């Protein structure tokens, strides 16, 4: 999903959130960092011990991406290795430079770094859950129902099940379930 964050025009910022993640970072802090750097784009990252295996993004202490997916070049002891969350802010110029197809990290961000563009990084410690498979989605719903991950506007019900007011459940006992309209 995308949401415009600023006034229309060339400098317009767009917030992008992958549709298969459950994650509520500090969006105001991300946008403030993006603007303070004058970044082409800003990635929201998280620390994860699996980062090296799943797609490392190296970040310096000033909040700039320095290396993506272990591109050739010497690293620095001052860098932190993180993972991309699928949440990012793109400037209007970045939108115009998006690859026509393929991975935005490999075909967009990596190229932008090669072109010496400023790519911002915000490492956010908010709980993160991938929802890309049915099993992961069920686990994410259980995390929300159990109060382990907070979702703005959702209060975990004491019953353990969340049922939309428009839904009708008959002849069934719900156990830690989410029922939509």
Characterization of this structure:
This protein has 181 residues and is an alpha+beta fold. The chain is 24% helix and 27% strand. It contains 5 helices and 11 strands. Strands 1, 2, 4, 5, 6, 7 and 8 form a 7-stranded mixed β-sheet that branches. Strand 1 (2-4) and strand 2 (13-17) form a beta hairpin. The longest helix is centred in the C-terminal third of the chain and has 12 residues, at 134-145.
Ends: how far apart? 21 Å
Alpha carbon gyration radius: 19 Å
Largest sheet: 7 strands, mixed
- Tally the helices: what do you get? 5
Uncertain segments are 6-10
Overall strand count:
11
Order of helices and strands: EEEHEHEEEHHEEHEE
Quote the average pLDDT.
87
**Percent of residues in helical segments?**
10-25%
Strand fraction: 25-35%
Decide which structural class fits the backbone: alpha+beta
What best-fitting shape do the alpha-carbon axes yield? elongated
Helix-strand layout with pairing:
Elements: E1 2-4, E2 13-17, E3 21-23, H1 27-37, E4 41-46, H2 51-54, E5 57-59, E6 65-68, E7 80-91, H3 92-96, H4 104-114, E8 119-123, E9 128-130, H5 134-145, E10 162-163, E11 178-179
Task: Write out key terms for the chains shown.
11 strands; 181 residues; single chain; seven-stranded mixed beta sheet; alpha+beta; 5 helices; 24% helix; 27% strand; two-stranded antiparallel ribbon; elongated
Short summary of the structure?
By secondary structure, the protein is α+β, with helices and mostly antiparallel strands.
